[in-house]
Amino acid sequence: MQAESMSGAPLWIIGLMDLLGAPGAGLAVALENLFPPIPSEVILPLAGFAASTGQMNLFAALLWTTAGSVVGALALYGVGALLGRDRTVAIAARLPLVKVSDIERTEAWFLRHGTKAIFFGRMIPVVRSLISVPAGVERMPLPVFTLLTTLGSAIWNTAFVLAGYFLGANWTEVTAIVSTYSKIVLGAAAIAVLAFTLVRFLKKDRGSQGHGARGADTCGSAARARQATEHPRPETHSTPTP
């Protein structure tokens, strides 16, 4: 590849594509699924640019990057399946501020909307990797999971591989756009987690205050009862009127 056009790509990704061509791009995408910090917004347009220079066939780039997405997703599906529901609930229940009821609601949501989550989740940074785990935990039928993953990944990958192909040496423009999109998604997720934590803390604080007030009332009642027992009031006898 042309060195002056590779400044936005990690050297190991360039090395994989130089060494293996389209299969190298697919391997990089599979690793991106397993390790979300690896930037797919770099891998995909870079593969398109490589295809535009003739280093790899465009169709092969689309095929191998989509295959890499599916392989990575299946690996994470396997992790979820190995964990299983009971073990996942037990682990999550030990996390601070997480209740079993939260997990059950998430599970119910996934059972209702899991197919849409798998398909559209392939087009959302970080989510496209993590969404495979609950699918494995809930044992979504493997053919359905594989089909939805393939379709969603093919749409995402094709858009960015073609963008890199047509932009040529300017492929890094795609990276800048997708990087902004990723930051917005991650920022929204961080705000959601912060809001959840704040609400849970407030509920916990109110509950402890209510418990303290009820405890004080109980102690006060007990003290009054004890005082009445230890120091009974003298009986008053009314004098009958003649």
Structural summary, described in words:
Helices cover 78% and strands 0% of the residues. By secondary structure, the chain is mainly alpha-helical. Helix 2 runs antiparallel to helix 3 (40-52), helix 3 packs across helix 8 and helix 3 runs antiparallel to helix 9 (172-230). The radius of gyration is 30 Å and the shape is elongated.
Index terms:
single chain; 242 residues; mainly alpha; 78% helix
What's the structural blueprint in terms of helices and strands?
Layout: H1 11-20, H2 22-34, H3 40-52, H4 58-93, H5 100-121, H6 127-130, H7 132-137, H8 142-167, H9 172-230
Oligomer: single chain
N-to-C series of helices and strands = HHHHHHHHH
Radius of gyration: 30 Å
Helical percentage: over 70%
Mean pLDDT: 75
Number of strands: 0
Total of DSSP H or I helical runs spanning 4+ residues: 9
Q: Tell me the fraction of residues in β-strands, as a range.
A: under 5%
Helix/strand class: mainly alpha
End-to-end gap:
124 Å
Low-confidence parts, pLDDT < 50 over ≥5 residues?
A: none
* Shape, per Cα inertia axes: elongated
> What kind of sheet is the major sheet?
none
Give the structure's gist in a few sentences.
The chain has 242 residues and is mainly alpha-helical.
